[in-house]
Write a structure and sequence with these properties.
75 residues, mainly alpha, 3 helices
């Protein structure tokens, strides 16, 4: 018989405010990534600091990647 660790929680164990927080943070993450990817696709390569492929890959790193691109990746 397998027992989950005491720190693992199920969705149903979370309060409604915790669920809302997770959903909101997830929506922010997806929105940031979509904005970064859209901008990266439309922006000419000479207006991007560094290789576009690297910024594309970085955009998949939680909040940090899209924010880094939007802050430092564009000229």
């Amino acid at each position: 018989m397998s027992h989950p660790s005491s720190s693992s929680r199920r969705w149903s164990d979370l309060s409604s405010s915790q669920r809302t927080g997770i959903i909101v943070l997830g929506a922010v993450q997806v929105t940031l990534q979509l904005v970064a990817l859209w901008d990266l696709r439309k922006r000419p390569a000479d207006e991007v600091r560094g290789p576009k492929a690297a910024w594309f890959a970085a955009s998949f790193i939680n909040f940090a990647g899209p924010i880094a691109y939007l802050r430092w990746g564009r000229r």
